[in-house]
Amino acid sequence: MTAPTTPPTPGGPAPPAARSAGPAPVTPLGRLLAMFAVTAVGWSLPNTASATLAQALVAEQSPDRKVALFAVVSTVGAVSAMVCTIVGGAWSDRTRSRFGRRTPWIVGGALVAVPGLLVAAITPSLPVLVAGYALFQGGMNASIAGLNAVTPDRVPRDRLGVASAVAGLGYLIGLVAGTAVAAAFVEAPAAGLLAVPWVLLATALAFAAAAPDESSRDAVAPPTRWRALLPPLDRDFLLAFAGRFLTLLALLLFNTYALYIGTDHLGLDTGEAGAVIALGTLFLGAAALVTTVAGGIVSDRIGRRKPLVAGASLVMALGVTPLLVAPGVPALLVFSTLAGVGYGTYLSVDAALMVEVLPSDGDAGKDLGFLTLANTAPVVLAPGLAGGIVTLLGYGALFTALMACAIGGALCILMIRKVS
């Protein structure tokens, strides 16, 4: 199943990060939020499509070793993504240009990512494929780091929930579209890989044109030191990181072995399991779409983040209960629906909460980059962890671990002090 991450008003005072950077940009808030959705589609679509198409390309080139070889491709790509997220965020905090702090990284990262995927598409050499895919992941995630930092720079605090929601909605649209593109090109993966990175570049350029940033035109850049790349040792920041990590790990523990859960645990044949997973994905996507739109609006209106984010994690934990008590197709569909409710709510509010726990205005890009690692690390860890649990203890233990992670994530969020 595919899924997988107050006070000022519009026209009122800018949020702290924007105040520290110089004159506030003049882009209307509505246009800025629309561009958040556009750019979320712009990176989610190629990211989703390229993962499947790269698998297909490796299988086409080396069918006997495809599993091991793609593990190398994806692992190196994930490491590149993590490093470039931190570096891109930290250096964007210190960038001073006529185009602002973030725009050079948003556009520059996309300019690096495109040739990386083009090279990966046309090469018959595995090392070059690995390097090209890593360049694509690194450039794309440097661009995403710049985009993420625009929120604390330019969005008033009482609109953070809406900003989080529209970006989450864009991500879901890109996820669905990327899956469709991958399906269309799966028998010609090189052609698909040649096509999809241009979406990232086009939306990055559109953002630069539609939402120009002049916030750092006259500001003095702080000195760049190696300590600027270290995470802040702040209690609430670390709790937010742990909460996001555990919640997303819970979802990925299921998604990683969804096909095997259908065949080995529920007793379906492969075709039946595939059909059930597709139906479950539809349920998850529909529920997530509704709650993504609603969650951010509700969060801004009540002025609270923690109950919604923690509640989203607890809904995921509740959803796995039927699979423990009465395993079967209905139980799997119940889990898919509740997981969609939780995941959509999480998408729409979590990013707002993460902005509000930032301990330093001047390091927003770098700190959000570290929080983004809580998205990436579960992707790397979930396959091995889930495989070990199932091999040693069975699927019941896997569902119990999922529940424990989701509950742990909720508890971490509830322990945060500076956000209500």
TrEMBL record:
Domain Major facilitator superfamily (MFS) profile: 236-420
SUPFAM superfamilies listed in its UniProt record: MFS general substrate transporter (SSF103473)
PROSITE patterns referenced in this protein's UniProt entry, alphabetically: MFS, SUGAR_TRANSPORT_1
Membrane-topology annotation of the record: Multi-pass membrane protein
Primary localization class, coarse: membrane
Segments traversing the membrane: 67-91, 103-122, 128-150, 162-185, 191-211, 237-261, 273-296, 308-326, 332-355, 367-386, 392-416
Organism superkingdom: Bacteria
Composition-biased stretches (Pro residues): 1-16
Keyword DNA-binding: no
Region: Disordered, residue numbers: 1-23
Keywords: Membrane, Transmembrane, Transmembrane helix
Subcellular location: Cell membrane
UniProt protein name: MFS family permease
